[in-house]
Design brief:
about 1000 residues; mainly beta; Immunoglobulin-like; 22-stranded antiparallel beta barrel; five-stranded mixed beta sheet; 13 helices; about 50% strand; globular
């Protein structure tokens, strides 16, 4: 027995020795394909075996392979796996390329990701690289002109100011139409909590930290977000670290900004002539008209014409506006290994607006860390800290009309800026007084008044994930969106607005805490290589709490004292506390067969504290399907077809953007009676108040031809919005003015088109084009009480667009008299149109056609990129323009063009009426009533951005010990083709009290080391 065991042992040793003799050692080095640096921690495995070896800190490895050879598999997180046949080689060096599928092939959808070829919904994707280093303060502005179905209007040129974003139009009349914004899983509260500076909460994120933005447009894909998704969803993913040595990137840019235009307005002598004509046409004799005109300029009644001719003309626009400046500094570090990846960045941005003393200052710090504790347990932390300081003193001038950006063009040009002693001209209590309707020196307002706002924000997520089974994962995340806003405003007693009350100061503080948790089970598996199944089951809870206080006081001892405790008279104090909660369970189920057919369904059961007890919960389903026709055998022989996919979806979403307590029976303070305070009911309850509901059908075709040189998508959608919320008037006998009810309905339909082409690609030169177009039609289908027209707002009419303009049709000027004319209800000429009968639909404030086009040229290290943005089919009334068109109605300045084209003699053909004192004759053309003369077309094509850059060669970089380097220059809003009389056709609203957009030029340098 012992001999048998000894023989067996010797035999096994001989076999092992023989096997060892048949193996050999292969060595090599793994480097990063872009940087050329060694990559530690790369797994080198002999394919089909368990034999593996990691690379060392220099990227070197050593592994035993059979003498006959074999295949080595090189794998690393964030890089494309590579297989190499060893053959007879003893040294195998490999360069691994980063896996960029996250942007080009992977799409963020709902609470997960999906391969782009399997997506059945309508999702627009914008790479962070497309807007990198642009001088924009908020991420929503980065979407402008870059995605079909997304309309972005820059309502304000104030850095960090409000931006209006609409995804596939407007689906509600009285509730918020703002999309849901999600940053690294955190659902943001983007309500404007500023009282003084019109801030944008999205400005707390550095746009250069963004990796990609996905815009979910269809209801089926958005259904997993339920009650928050009816206005679309914008998902922002920030940058992550990649394994390898730590890479540092420094970026700095600076530049200047200028107004888009200056208005050509009258000089003093032209304005004097206009006033004489206006008084004469009103009925004064020529002699009296001259006397009244002289008085308007502070001259004696008998002042000779030579004295009028000697009056100076001051250019208030160029004094109020300035050359703005922008400065930006950033430093980031990223890297890691197979266990831990990190990205850390810090940034400082300072922008001075084109209006004096209006500026924006922001500091940000971001940290994203992913850590694999074990093969099954991983952790993720995303944290963004920011502090923002904004200043805009003209916004507290008492009236926005008195603010510099609005008033500069309207001030009488004869008013000097300062007196001979250097003090401001026309201050209250001094002589001479400031003349004109706008009777305050806006330069003094800007210097003396204060309006500052400090916002400190925290956006963060902590999550852990556990792999229960190879195909089953659990993820638990906890998020916070916290904002502390503190504002201070001061109206100086040396200005007209606060002179009588000896100064006025206001302070406010606002805290908003948004907490969220998501518990999510995810399943994903393949069967028989042709069946792919994925599923999610989740629970979500969100609490949003907001509280604040404010105080104001006046009567200060002097302008040097500005704190409220220095005032003699407390004016007001106030405070509030409010909030809401949401809870939901949701699930998704998807199936893909052989890469050809895919279907995905989602269901969310949502609850919101904002609604009545009878309708607090809602069910929101969605289903989407796609057919990859290009994977069928009958098309595979057509090599020029790379992708052809049909997709269709249906879904239902909710909208709860209303007041937190609109469904409740509310009480409020009811004053003092008999020395005691009391309370009283303030609003009626509605326990049946419920969600506004959007249902959408979406159809589309995605395509790619000729080796992907031509690709894009064509789609259309139809949506209904039901149970729209209105404040329905109540009889006064009830003691309440109105009650919130679900009574309205609206429809929308639209077409979207995106086309991406590689026009040229030869000898190192490449030219790419991206074009997108959107058409949207909106129609109200139901109002409360079965009414066809809302009495309180005649522009809201069944069968018409929500932006319908219900006003007068301007018929021009009577050649014989110079009087303005309008059309009545029958199309006849009238001089006094009646508000009750003669108004008609004259257009819409919403554009019908929008889009953009980007062209990118690259040649070796050089690149040139420019974006055109356009809109068509929108009319808007601009309050500032309307003032400048009054033509003698009031003591204001006017457009030179209007003055030159005014009616002066019988028989003259023109569209500008005769100058006329007071607006009695000119109704319909002034800013109050409006007509087709003042609601003007705002169609435009704008060169939105241009960037020219050069990436330094490796030879040059090695000499200065850098890994990368880029020099770039860019411009924004450099050219606009339009017929709009105002500063900017893009503004949203009456344009009072805001800063117009500017054109900017910046130069920057980015280096990596």
């Amino acid at each position: 027995m012992k001999k048998a065991l000894l023989f067996s042992f010797v035999f096994v040793l001989a076999l092992v020795g023989q096997a060892w003799a048949q193996n050999r050692t292969v060595t090599g080095r793994v480097t990063d394909a872009q940087s050329g640096e060694g990559m530690p921690g790369v797994t080198v495995q002999l394919k089909g075996t368990s034999t593996a070896s990691p690379t060392d800190v220099n990227g070197s490895y050593s592994i035993n392979v059979p003498s006959a050879g074999g295949t080595l598999v090189f794998s690393f997180i964030g890089y494309v796996n590579q297989e190499v046949a060893v053959g007879s080689q003893s040294t195998v060096n490999v360069r691994l390329a980063a896996d960029n599928r996250q942007i080009s092939e992977i799409v963020v959808t709902g609470y997960g990701v999906q391969e782009k070829r399997e997506v059945a919904g309508s999702i627009a994707q914008v790479s962070g690289a497309s807007f990198e280093n642009q001088p924009i303060a908020s991420l929503d502005k980065a979407l402008q002109g870059r995605a079909a179905g997304v309309v972005v209007q820059s309502a304000n040129g104030l850095p960090g100011g409000a931006i209006n974003v609409q995804i596939r139009g407007v689906g509600s009349i009285n509730t918020s139409t703002t999309p849901l914004y999600i940053v690294d899983g955190v659902q943001l509260n983007v309500s404007d909590r500023a009282s003084f500076t019109q801030s944008n909460p999205l400005a707390s994120i550095n746009t250069n930290d963004i990796e990609s933005i996905e815009v979910i447009k269809d209801a089926a894909t958005a259904a997993v977000y339920g009650s928050q998704a009816a206005n679309g969803v914008v998902i922002i993913t920030t940058k992550r670290g990649k394994a390898g040595r730590t890479k540092f990137t420094a970026n700095v840019y600076g530049g200047v900004s200028e107004p888009l235009k200056y208005f050509d307005v009258l000089n003093t002598q032209q304005l004097y002539t206009q006033k004489i004509e206006a008084y004469s046409n009103y009925g004064y004799s020529l002699a009296n008209a001259r006397i009244l005109a002289r008085r308007d300029f502070g001259l004696a009644d008998a002042a000779p014409d030579t004295e009028v001719s000697a009056l100076p003309s001051y250019d208030w626009q160029r004094e109020v506006f300035r050359t703005g400046k922008v400065r930006n500094y950033e430093l980031s570090a990223s890297g890691g290994n197979e266990k831990t990846l990190f990205f850390i960045s810090g940034g400082y941005n300072k922008q001075e607006a084109i209006a004096t003393k209006a500026d924006f200052e922001r500091a940000t710090l971001r940290m994203n860390v992913n850590h694999n504790a074990t093969d099954k347990l991983s952790f993720e932390t995303n944290l963004n800290l920011s502090t923002i300081l904004q200043n805009a003193p003209f916004t507290v001038s008492g009236t926005s009309i008195g603010g510099g950006p609005f008033a500069a063009s309207l001030i009488l040009p004869s008013n000097p800026f300062r007196k001979e002693d250097g003090t401001y001209y026309g201050l209250p209590g001094t002589t001479p007084s400031f003349r004109g309707v706008l009777n305050q020196n806006v330069l003094a307002v800007n210097e003396f008044n204060e309006a500052t706002q400090r916002t400190n924000a925290v956006i963060g997520t902590f999550a852990f994930a556990y792999k229960i089974l190879p195909s089953l994962n659990f993820r638990s995340s906890y998020s916070i969106d916290y904002n502390l806003t503190q504002g201070f405003s001061y109206r100086d007693p040396r200005t007209q607005d606060a002179f009588a009350r000896r100064g006025l100061a206001q302070q406010q503080s606002d805290w908003n805490t948004n907490l969220q948790t998501v518990q999510l089970l995810t399943y994903g598996a393949r069967f028989a290589e042709v069946h792919k199944v994925d599923a999610q089951l989740g629970f979500e809870y969100r609490s949003d709490q907001n509280q604040g206080f404010s105080a104001s006081a006046d009567n200060f001892p002097s302008f040097e004292f500005q704190n409220i405790n220095s005032a003699a008279n407390p004016v007001s104090t106030g405070g509030f506390q409010t909030g809401y909660k949401r809870t939901a369970v949701f699930g998704t189920l998807g199936y893909v067969f052989n890469g050809k057919y895919s279907v995905k369904g989602s269901l969310r059961y949502d609850g919101s504290s904002r609604f009545g007890a009878n309708n607090r919960f809602g069910l929101f389903p969605g289903i989407a399907a796609a057919w990859n026709i290009s994977e069928e055998n009958f098309l595979k022989s057509y090599d020029w077809i790379n992708n052809l996919k049909l997709r269709a979806s249906w879904g239902r979403n909710g909208r709860d953007g209303i007041g937190n307590f609109d469904a409740r029976y509310l009480y409020s303070g009811a004053g003092v009676y008999g020395g005691a305070s009391g309370i009283g009911p303030s609003s009626l309850p509605n326990p049946d108040l419920k969600w506004e509901v959007r249902e959408m059908i979406d159809l589309g075709i995605d395509f790619a031809f000729f080796s992907n040189r031509v690709s894009g998508t064509i789609g259309g959608f139809f949506e209904t919005n039901d149970d729209l919320l209105f404040s329905q008037p109540l009889p006064t006998t009830l003691g309440y003015s109105s009650i919130r009810v679900n009574v309205g309905a609206m429809e929308q339909r639209g077409l979207e088109f995106e086309l991406n082409t590689v026009n040229l690609d030869m000898n190192g030169f490449q030219w790419k084009t991206n074009f997108n177009y959107t058409f949207i039609h909106n129609e109200i289908t139901k109002l409360y009480g079965g009414q066809q027209v809302l009495p309180s707002d005649p522009s809201l009419r069944v069968g018409e667009d929500i932006g319908t303009i219900w006003s007068y049709s301007y018929a021009g000027v009577n050649p014989a008299t110079g009087r303005p004319m309008w059309h009545d209800a029958n199309g006849n000429i009238t001089y006094q149109p009646a508000a009750s009968t003669d108004r008609r639909i004259i257009g819409s404030t919403r554009p019908k056609h929008t889009g953009g086009m980007t062209n990118t040229f690259t040649y070796k290290g050089f690149d040139l990129d420019f974006l055109f943005q356009y809109q068509y089919g929108r009319r808007q009334s601009d309050g500032q323009v309307n003032f400048l068109m009054e033509n003698g109605t009031r003591n204001l300045n006017a457009f030179t063009d209007i003055f030159n084209r005014r009616w002066t003699t019988p028989g003259q053909i023109t569209d500008v009426p005769r100058p006329y004192f007071t607006g009695a004759e000119d109704q319909g053309s002034n800013h109050i009533l409006g007509s087709t003369r003042t609601f003007r077309k705002t169609d435009y094509i704008r060169l939105k951005t241009v960037q020219f850059g050069y990436n330094f060669t490796e030879g040059l970089l090695s000499k200065v010990h850098l890994k990368s380097g880029r020099l770039y220059v860019q411009g924004t809003n450099l050219f606009t083709y339009d017929d709009h009389l105002g500063y900017d056709p893009e503004y949203f609203g009456e344009a009072t009290g805001i800063v117009p957009q500017s054109k900017n030029v910046t130069v920057g340098l980015q280096i990596g080391f």
